[in-house]
Write a sequence for this structure.
């Protein structure tokens, strides 16, 4: 009988199974659906956020071929414009001043352009004066004329012809809305004013932030690179894309991995459900095999079932994932609350390739989860299977432990390998290998743990029976354990990592928030030296340390680091410190991510896009700025940049001073124009805020983790109940030889508890190892920060407890149902 | 004078400049900040060759004929414009748009059958674009026209399709148009420009096409004009011609057309070979179409061959103007420019350029 002619038999087998146990199959399909949905949703949200972010970047850039970008917010000397415009390979060049502007409470990007140059280089950035406004003026060169994108018109609630006071760089001026910017993409708040006006009115005389370049055909940027000073870099669309990708790539990849974990646990659920389904049908399979079905017929049958589950589950999952992504985007924004993409709305972009990918992954998980148990079943001789539907593994044959140990060992080695392209590929591989090794080692562990117990007897009938059953049917025990171990391990690994991270952040916040009050100016303006002196003289203030943070581009394809100018004293806690610095260098202190990203060591001399020679004096811990930060003495900063404005201040109060009073006094002494941008906070508030931010950015992590746990527990429950139901005959037999119903239930509860306990302990151990990979490999490689391990003992204990209770509970419940029928009928099942 | 600079300027940067251009063409009160063109100004050379930045608009407009070594006849046009927008004079920024410069170049080759052209525009400054005061020296990146100490003009332009490097040697003194350079453009006396021409410039230099340079010689006409407010309301376009006559005479004539082709104003001058000048009143000039050509691109119908009648003391003289080839329409809408016809023409006993504006669309006044 060929496979093809066995269609009828296969049809009966599958159809019969589905008619008999629709709920179980539906559950497995749902498990796959959840895995696919989560993976797809996370991917969609990330992809949409990234493309929106890149779209925003392209909008502001106006799609120039190449750009010369300033490395600091102070821009570069405008004389560079003439040199760039006449450089080899430059067809045209458009000078740009870029400012973050506010009008009322709305924020937008203000571009100062030369309309004639922009018309050639970045035509999407110039406006058209709509009919109806006064056409008897030099609208194009009118210093008052402000052209706004549709999004900016909306947020500012203005129409062409309206007057609007715009503030930027600490200065405000009145402009007139002259028209729209139809070339700017929807959703980007951009305003365009004549470049001369922006330079004059917003204090940027002599400075440019950007030069957009139109290249002559077939030329490289080499000639351009050669003439650039330190404070400018070349940017192309490729480097822009790399930079915006680098901004959040590690975060996105980690979320993708978590989503895959959910899919993996879904696969486990299919595996456990199908294992039992196969076990129950062994006799049926055997019968059909004796009638001529080839061995692979069984595999084909179960694989087809898996395929059906996969198809249904994956289709459901895609729909669900799309819905979840839509809900998440509208509710939390494109970075799911992690704060990577500050502004610009995100539109959900359907990703066909990803949809196909996740669909196939779901189908693959379901088919693989089905084929594995089927292969084991197919190996059993039909004659033996016909008579005995018990465990297929002989408890007397020793279980190999070498494959498991080898997998874990390889995983350990993989954890030592470096990141690839800033992504901890080997770290994830290591975790997968360790997990696989742990699961592969389960039969061996179950045997090793249960063997000594099985040798001893004399306890209650129920527990004796339970131990002997588990010991005698190691295949079933291992199947149930796999699900438990996998979900526990992942759950524990995540919990340990998040606890370690949160603990480290909390401790770090304690270190950095050592002053009494913190003051900060929002926006790009700040306190000039006079205002600083006024604030310093506030009654009740013992000390006030002003600081300034500015973005500093060190490399065109990386997001800028934050340059922090502040006083540096002994209170500055360092991870590493240079003993001495080269003579004539200015000390800078790198945050840990900055040191790792740019591979700078303490004591090394480095070049910054600022005047002077710099050397790394130390490395400090920072969990706030993933793209890196550099601390410089504020005196050195003023010398290098000439910038004496400060945007932040840390205040020490005199003993006994009332913080509330001082706060009020500080507010009163703030220059008038700045008052509404100034916020003052106490350390406790900031700490709470920072931890809230942390929790928000991990919200999705928690969610994914929770789903993985639920799917895992559902797998455990399904396994337990299926195993129990499959043993109806056994219970009938036990009843016949005098075991009471109560004892049977107790036996099942013990079995469940034992499985939960063994699985839980193994899972926790495995999870602990995986947590080390997460904390010490994946986290540093993804985010460039290190931390110490902190174990959440409470969570560990409750996970172990929950597992034991869930396993015992489901076994008991299923057992009650199984023994409800009378003993005679139960035995009759044995034919 | 009659160059459709206003329209060209208007559309240059896809509409943004529209309002500025409309200001140029309309008789607006804004012009009160600019000097008014009045009769009686005394031209001093070489000062007048240089820029007059106080005035709203100004141009250096060269048209002429080129002959290649193979004796092929070509027409060329090289034009530099300057405009002074109304801006806040207090703005200390080097980007302050105190002067805007534009340039345009076109080549008429009968074997090509249509115009080849290119353009430049920039605000003055940064050494990239400037118009010198005191003598001719206007440059826009790699485009430049300047007057050498010996009185010759040197012009260089580069477009993707051709490049010209020409030396223009004056052989006659400047011809002051209108009343000693005061050229009225409409019924109102302030609708006027300062205007002089330098006809019969001897041309030598090189023409580069497809990467190969070849020497060329020829004859050209320079128009210099500056004004703040020179077009009356109601005009939709104009016809203009400047002719170098073989006997050494020079003739310039223009008419400003209203709706339906009605002549609103006309003028011009004729300098005889002996140097005596006849100036034309509006009634002395008549343009009549001999042949019309319909542009397949724009559908505009241009009177590409015209009979020009001028009243001289000895009687009416008629000159038939025949184009080098019909399709000398400049359709530069792709680069935000207007559509008009600017072509090399021949006339019995002379040659020059004919300019026909406002035929594709009426000029917005």
């Amino acid at each position: 009988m060929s496979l093809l002619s066995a269609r009828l038999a296969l049809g009966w087998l599958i159809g019969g199974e589905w008619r008999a146990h629709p709920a179980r199959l539906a559950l497995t399909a749902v498990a796959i659906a959840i895995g696919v949905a989560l993976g797809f949703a996370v991917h969609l949200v990330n992809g949409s956020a990234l493309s929106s972010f890149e779209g925003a970047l392209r909008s502001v850039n106006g799609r120039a071929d190449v750009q010369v970008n300033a490395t600091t917010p102070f821009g570069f000397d405008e004389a560079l414009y003439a040199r760039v415009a006449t450089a080899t390979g430059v067809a045209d060049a458009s000078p740009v001043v870029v400012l973050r502007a506010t009008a009322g409470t709305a924020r937008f990007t203000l571009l100062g352009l030369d309309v004639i140059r922009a018309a050639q280089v970045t035509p999407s950035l110039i406006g058209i004066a709509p009919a109806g406004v006064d056409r008897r003026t030099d609208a194009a060169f009118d210093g008052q004329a402000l052209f706004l994108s549709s999004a900016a018109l909306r947020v500012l609630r203005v129409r062409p012809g309206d007057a609007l006071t715009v503030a930027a760089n600490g200065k405000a001026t009145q402009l007139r809305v002259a028209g729209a910017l139809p070339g700017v993409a929807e959703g980007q708040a951009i305003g365009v004013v004549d470049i001369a006006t922006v330079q004059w009115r917003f204090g940027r005389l002599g400075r440019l932030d950007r030069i957009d370049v139109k290249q002559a055909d077939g030329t490289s940027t080499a000639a351009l690179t050669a003439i650039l000073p330190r404070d400018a870099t070349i940017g192309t669309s490729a480097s822009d894309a790399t930079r915006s990708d680098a901004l959040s790539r590690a975060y996105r990849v980690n979320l993708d991995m978590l989503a895959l974990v959910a899919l993996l646990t879904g696969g486990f659920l299919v595996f456990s459900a199908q294992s039992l389904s196969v076990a129950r049908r062994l006799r049926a399979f055997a019968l059909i095999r004796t009638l001529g079905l080839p061995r692979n017929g069984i595999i084909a049958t179960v694989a087809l079932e898996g395929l059906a589950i996969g198809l249904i589950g994956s289709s459901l999952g895609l729909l669900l994932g799309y819905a979840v992504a839509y809900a998440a985007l509208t509710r939390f924004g494109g970075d799911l609350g992690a704060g990577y993409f500050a502004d610009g709305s995100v539109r959900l972009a359907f990703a066909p390739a990803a949809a196909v990918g996740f669909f196939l992954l779901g189908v693959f998980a379901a088919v693989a989860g089905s084929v594995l148990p089927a292969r084991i079943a197919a190996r059993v001789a039909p004659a033996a299977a016909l008579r005995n539907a018990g465990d297929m593994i002989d408890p007397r044959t020793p279980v190999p432990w070498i494959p498991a140990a080898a997998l874990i060992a390889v995983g350990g080695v993989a954890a030592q390998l470096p990141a690839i392209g800033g992504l901890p590929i080997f770290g994830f591989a290591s975790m997968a290998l360790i997990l696989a090794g742990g699961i592969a080692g389960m039969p061996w562990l179950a045997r090793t743990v249960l063997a000594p117990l099985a040798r001893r007897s004399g306890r209650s009938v129920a527990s004796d029976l339970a131990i002997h059953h588990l010991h005698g049917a190691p295949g079933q025990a291992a199947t149930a354990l796999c699900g438990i171990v996998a979900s526990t391990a992942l759950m524990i690994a995540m919990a340990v990592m998040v606890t370690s991270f949160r603990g480290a952040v909390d401790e770090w916040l304690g270190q950095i928030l050592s002053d009494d009050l913190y003051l900060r100016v929002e926006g790009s303006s700040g306190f000039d030296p006079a205002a600083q002196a006024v604030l310093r003289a506030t009654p009740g203030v013992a000390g006030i340390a002003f600081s300034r943070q500015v973005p500093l581009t060190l490399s065109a394809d990386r997001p800028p680091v934050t340059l922090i100018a502040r006083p540096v004293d002994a209170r500055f806690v360092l991870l590493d410190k240079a003993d001495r610095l080269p003579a004539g260098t200015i000390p800078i202190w790198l945050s840990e991510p900055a040191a790792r990203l740019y591979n700078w060591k303490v004591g090394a001399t480095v070049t910054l896009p600022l005047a002077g020679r710099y050397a790394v004096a130390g490395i400090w811990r920072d969990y706030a700025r993933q793209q890196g930060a550099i601390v410089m003495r504020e005196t050195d900063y003023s010398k290098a940049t000439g910038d004496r404005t400060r945007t932040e201040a840390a205040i020490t109060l005199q003993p006994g001073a009332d913080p509330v009073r001082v706060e009020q006094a500080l507010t009163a002494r703030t220059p008038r124009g700045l008052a509404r941008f100034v916020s003052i906070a106490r350390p406790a508030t900031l700490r709470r805020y920072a931890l809230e931010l942390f929790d928000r950015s991990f919200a999705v992590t928690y969610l994914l983790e929770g789903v993985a746990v639920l799917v895992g527990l559902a797998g455990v429950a399904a396994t337990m109940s299926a195993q129990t139901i499959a043993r109806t005959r056994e219970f009938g037999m036990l009843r016949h030889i005098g075991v009471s119903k109560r004892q049977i239930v107790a036996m099942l509860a013990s079995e469940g508890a034992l499985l939960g306990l063994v699985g839980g302990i193994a899972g926790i151990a495995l999870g602990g190892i995986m947590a080390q990979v997460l904390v010490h490999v994946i986290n540093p490689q993804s985010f460039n920060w290190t931390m110490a391990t902190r174990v959440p003992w409470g969570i560990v204990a409750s996970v172990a407890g929950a597992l034991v209770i869930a396993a015992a509970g489901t076994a008991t419940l299923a057992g009650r149902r199984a023994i409800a029928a009378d003993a005679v009928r139960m035995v009759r099942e044995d034919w | 004078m009659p160059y459709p600079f206003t329209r060209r300027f208007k559309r240059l940067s896809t509409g943004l400049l529209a309002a500025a251009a409309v200001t140029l063409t309309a008789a607006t009160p804004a012009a009160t900040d600019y000097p008014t063109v009045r009769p009686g100004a005394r031209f001093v050379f070489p000062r007048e060759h240089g820029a007059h930045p106080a005035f709203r608009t100004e141009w250096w407009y060269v048209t002429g004929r080129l002959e290649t070594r193979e004796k092929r006849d070509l027409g060329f046009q090289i034009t530099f414009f300057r405009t002074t927008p109304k801006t806040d004079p207090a703005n200390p920024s080097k980007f302050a748009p105190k002067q805007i410069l534009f340039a345009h170049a076109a080549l008429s080759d009968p074997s090509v059958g249509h115009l080849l052209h290119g353009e430049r525009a920039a605000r003055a400054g940064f050494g990239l674009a400037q118009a010198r005061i005191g003598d001719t020296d206007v440059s826009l990146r790699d485009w430049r026209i300047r007057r050498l100490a010996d009185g010759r003009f040197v012009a260089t332009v580069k477009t993707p399709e051709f490049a010209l490097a020409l030396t223009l040697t004056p052989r006659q003194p400047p011809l002051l148009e209108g009343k000693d350079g005061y050229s009225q453009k409409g019924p109102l006396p302030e609708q006027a420009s300062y205007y002089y021409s330098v006809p019969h410039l001897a041309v030598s230099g090189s023409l580069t096409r497809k990467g190969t340079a070849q020497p060329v010689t020829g004859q050209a006409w320079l128009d210099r004009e500056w004004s703040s407010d020179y077009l009356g309301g109601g005009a939709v376009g104009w016809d203009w011609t400047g002719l170098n006559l073989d006997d050494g005479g020079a003739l310039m004539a223009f008419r400003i057309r209203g709706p339906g082709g009605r002549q609103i104003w006309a003028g011009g001058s004729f300098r005889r070979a002996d140097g005596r000048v006849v100036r034309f009143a509006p009634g002395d000039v008549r343009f009549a179409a001999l042949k019309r050509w319909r542009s397949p691109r724009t559908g505009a119908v241009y009177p590409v061959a015209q009979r020009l009648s001028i009243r001289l003391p000895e009687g009416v003289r008629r000159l038939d103007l025949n184009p080098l080839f019909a399709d000398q329409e400049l359709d530069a809408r792709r680069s935000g420019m207007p559509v008009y016809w600017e072509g090399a023409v021949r006339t019995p006993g002379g040659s020059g350029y004919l300019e026909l504006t406002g035929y594709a669309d009426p000029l917005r006044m």
